[in-house]
Each structure stands twice: as structure tokens, then as C-alpha cells.
Amino acid sequence: MIEITGVAKAFGALRALDGVDLTVRKGELFGLIGRNGAGKSTLFQLMLGLLSADEGRVQIDGECAGSRRFRAVKRRLGYLPENVVLYDNLSGLETLRFFARLKGADTSECTPLLEQVGLAGAAERKVREYSKGMRQRLGFAQALLGDPALLFLDEPTNGLDPEGIREFYRTLKTRQEAGTTIVITSHILAEIQQRVDRVAILQAGRISAAGSVSALRGDANLPLSIEVVALSDDTHAIEQALHRAPFGRLTIRGRHIEFECPRDAKMRAIAALAPLSGCIADLRLHEPSLEDVFLGCTEVNA
């Protein structure tokens, strides 16, 4: 669905993108993450055809962004910017109808979409009375107009409460199951790590890593965190077994013993603890989070 090859973009002396190569498959939920200023918004604007690349090629659904034939592709795109700007004097329903006419979408979609994003009860209220979260929901509704084949969502859960975030991702899952390709950026990495199919880390205008969260964990070779919960406050036998292994410094808090374990030593750690099963109430293995992977990659490439 998206093929980006050798793309570069500069604004004066600032090289916002510097040789980006990226592929997003049809029907994929793809995460794009990076620090502020890494080039995410610039890349979004290139994919939307709002900017032209200085070098390289951006293809969306087989068409080059900015070409004459790309106009037809743009009608099948949905976009939610990070900062939603709406007309305060229009109601929610009027706003959605306005965007539907701009996009050439059927205005009969508007009321069902407001229901879908939880704004049915506020459809006739002026947008100036909307909270930040309600504005975000309305922005999401306009992105869904016309049943887009490709959705670009820039910090889409900004301002949403926990219930709104859950509903948002439920809607995304339904859209993805129907074949929609979705590209999402978020600074809340814990929120997307279990939801994206693949993710790319953008750093200083370059892709520093890309793949599934599981693959990136393996590539980063970050240690696991293992927590042992003892049956009693006497943790001496467990500590001795772990020191003999050895697995480095232990952190002990009451009956809880935590230590880091190299990925290739996981079974060795379990084997060291197996003879002590009568002393252990619980054993918890914690994989590195997407945030850990992100920080590891950006520190290595800094």
C-alpha cells in the first residue's frame, strides 16, 4: 500500500528526512514512532501529497504522491492531524457534513459516524462547547468519512479518556479487519505495542529500525526482567541459587526478588529455580517494552 524509497526533504538548512526507505503492507496497522523533531509529521505530509520530496519516491497504492493520478488516491485517504482545528460556530453534525462535502463523501454517513465515536448526544451542540476529547472524537469521525482505504492518524488518542481510547482501538480493529491500512503515530508507546503489526523508529530523519515489536526486541538484545515471589520472607535459598547461576545484582523487596536475565539465559534461570519450587509462590517474566526498545535504539544510534 505504501512504498517509500530514498526520500529526503529539507527546509532550508534543516534536513527533516534523509534517505527514508519504508514499506507498509495492505491491511497492516503500522506504527511510526520517534522523538519530537524526528521527521514524523513531514513524512505524513509527504504521504498525503501535501509536500513534495526533494529526493526519492513516495508511492501510495501504486501511484506517486503528487502526480495527476494521485488525486483519485487522495479521495480514499483519511487523516487525523495531531492538532485538530475545527470551526467553533458549527455544530458537530454541521462540521462533519462540511468535511463530507469537501471530500465528496455521502453526508448520510455523518450521523452514524457521530454515533460510532460517541458523539451522538452532542451532534447539535456547537464545537466551541466541546472538550478536548470530544474535539478529538470529531476529528476521528471526519477521518473515517468515505470509508478510506488508508488512514493516517497522528497522535489520535490525545485528550481521550481510558474509555475513549478503548473505543478508538476497537474501531480501528474493525476497520483493519475490513481491509483498511492504518499508519499511526503515538508518544504513548505502551498503548500501541500490543496493537501494531509492525513499527518503524524514525530518528533524525532516518529509519533506525523497523519490524514487529517481537523482532525489534530480539534485534535490540535487551535483557528480560524476572521477578520471583517467595512463599515466605526467608529468601536466602533463592538468592543463593541465583548468585550461583549467576545473574548479577538482585533487587529484593520483602518476598519479591527481581533480576535481569540475558535473553539466551532464560531457560538457565528457570532451571536454577526449578529445585526451589517449594519455596516459590510465583514467577513472572517481563519482556522489554516498546519504550525500552525505542530508548535502546535511539541511544545506540545517537
Report on this model:
Belongs to the ABC transporter superfamily. Keywords: ATP-binding, Cell inner membrane, Cell membrane, Membrane, Nucleotide-binding, Transport. This is ABC transporter ATP-binding protein. The model has no long low-confidence stretch (mean pLDDT 91). The chain folds into 2 domains: 2-218, P-loop containing nucleotide triphosphate hydrolases (Rossmann fold); 220-300, 2-Layer Sandwich (Alpha-Beta Plaits). The relative contact order is 0.13. The chain has helices at residues 40-47, 70-74, 92-103, 110-116, 132-143, 162-177, 189-192, 213-220, 236-244, 266-273, 290-300, and strands spanning 2-11, 14-24, 29-33, 55-60, 63-64, 77-80, 150-154, 181-185, 198-203, 206-211, 224-230, 251-253, 256-261, 280-286. The protein is α/β, with parallel strands linked by helices and 302 residues long. It contains 11 helices and 14 strands. The two termini are 31 Å apart. The strands form 3 sheets. It has a 6-stranded mixed β-sheet, with helices on both faces. Strand 7, helix 6 (162-177) and strand 8 form a beta-alpha-beta unit. Helix 4 (110-116) crosses helix 5.
Please outline what is shown here:
The chain is an alpha/beta fold and 302 residues long. 33% of the residues lie in helices and 27% in strands. The protein folds into 2 domains: 2-218, Rossmann fold (3-Layer(aba) Sandwich), CATH 3.40.50.300; 220-300, Alpha-Beta Plaits (2-Layer Sandwich).
Beta-strand content: 25-35%
Order the strands across the largest sheet as they lie in space: 6-7-8-3-9-10
Main sheet specs? 6 strands, mixed
3D shape: globular
| CATH homologous superfamily annotation of the largest domain | P-loop containing nucleotide triphosphate hydrolases
CATH domain class of the largest domain: Alpha Beta
Look at the helices and sheets and give the structural class.
Answer: alpha/beta
Instruction: Please give the share of residues in helix.
Output: 25-40%
CATH architecture of the largest domain: 3-Layer(aba) Sandwich
- The total count of strands amounts to 14
Q: CA-to-CA gap between the ends? A: 31 Å
The SSE order reads EEEHEEHEHHHEHEHEEHEHEEHEH
User: What is the number of independent domains?
Assistant: 2
Count of discrete alpha- or pi-helical segments spanning 4 or more residues: 11
